């Protein structure tokens, strides 16, 4: 029983869900609206709806990727049979409905963003994920949209644009890195990801380019006084070394095991980025 319950939790990708929750809530603080009790409630609804839709996207992703995951991720719940396909479909529907319900409590704008997100994330898992770059760009867009969504909830969406750009670039680089990790299973299932269509070397060049742009942008917002010295010190010590290490390591060793390790390191770095924005 506990193993099955654990499977229903892990299929949501709890780390990704938590990051979505925090990203939405972060906008409440960077907008200076945390003194408003009413906005705390609206932000809670937004954070819950974003987290649930994020979790739902991971469920549907596993449903469409079950054959690929038998090769790339055999430890996941669906390939192991710990959750049935029928059960996963029902779970996806319930999670999204609850997420959309919370979004409707905020207002029509947030509901439409949530509905659009749930629909496009379905299309992403069904088709876009297996295309060159468009799949990567789509999922990266939604990580940035989480900040905008939080901004819409508190009426300060413009303040969320900079962290949204950070999130987009960071996840875009990481998504292509994950495509290198998954290249064996993707190739067997005739997926047309960037590393398959253009080669691993081209993918590594693109990842390097994206992360160098990210470094430049995160430095620029400090130099023009958008964010403060504390922000800069956090990314200088906590993020830049990890990004540079990732770039050097992936060029030296792009084996599945090493790329998987680097992908996990970058996932941890997402929390460092959120921390830097919070104090910035």
- Distance from N terminus to C terminus (CA atoms, Å) equals 44 Å
DSSP strand count? 0
Main sheet properties: none
Helix content: over 70%
Task: Summarize the helices and strands and which ones pair or pack.
Layout: H1 2-10, H2 14-30, H3 37-64, H4 66-72, H5 77-80, H6 85-104, H7 108-126, H8 134-154, H9 161-181, H10 183-188, H11 194-198, H12 200-223, H13 229-238, H14 240-252, H15 256-279
Quick recap:
By secondary structure, the chain is an all-alpha fold. It has helices spanning 2-10, 14-30, 37-64, 66-72, 77-80, 85-104, 108-126, 134-154, 161-181, 183-188, 194-198, 200-223, 229-238, 240-252, 256-279.
Which key phrases capture this entry?
mainly alpha, Farnesyl Diphosphate Synthase, about 280 residues
Your description of this structure?
- About 80% of the residues lie in helices and about 0% in strands.
- With about 280 residues, the chain is mostly helical.
- The protein has one domain (about 1-280): Farnesyl Diphosphate Synthase (Orthogonal Bundle).
- Helix 2 runs parallel beside helix 15 and helix 3 runs antiparallel to helix 8.
């Amino acid at each position: 029983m506990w193993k099955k319950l654990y499977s229903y939790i892990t299929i949501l990708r709890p780390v990704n869900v938590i990051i979505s929750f925090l990203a939405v809530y972060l906008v409440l603080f960077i907008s200076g609206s945390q003194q408003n009790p009413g906005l705390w409630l609206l932000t809670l609804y937004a954070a819950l709806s974003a987290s649930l839709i994020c979790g739902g996207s991971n469920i549907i992703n596993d449903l469409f990727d079950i054959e690929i995951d038998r090769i790339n991720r055999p430890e996941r719940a669906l390939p192991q049979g710990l959750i049935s396909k029928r059960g996963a479909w029902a779970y996806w529907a319930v999670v999204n409905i609850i997420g959309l319900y919370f979004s409707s409590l905020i207002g029509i704008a947030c509901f439409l963003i949530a509905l659009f997100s749930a629909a496009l994330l379905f299309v992403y898992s069904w088709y876009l994920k297996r295309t060159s770059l468009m799949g990567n760009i789509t999922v990266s867009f939604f990580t940035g949209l989480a900040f905008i969504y939080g901004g819409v909830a508190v009426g300060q969406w413009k303040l969320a644009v900079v962290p949204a750009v950070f999130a987009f670039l960071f996840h875009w680089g990481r998504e292509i890195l994950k495509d290198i990790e998954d290249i064996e299973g993707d190739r067997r299932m005739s997926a047309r990801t960037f590393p398959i269509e253009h080669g691993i070397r081209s993918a590594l060049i693109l990842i390097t380019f994206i992360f160098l742009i990210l470094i430049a942008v995160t430095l620029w917002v400090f130099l023009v006084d958008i964010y403060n010295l504390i922000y800069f010190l956090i990314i200088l010590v906590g993020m830049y070394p990890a990004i540079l290490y990732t770039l050097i390591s992936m060029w030296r060793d792009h084996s599945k095991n090493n790329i998987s390790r680097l992908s996990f390191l970058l996932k941890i770095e997402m929390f460092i980025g959120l921390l830097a924005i919070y104090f910035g």
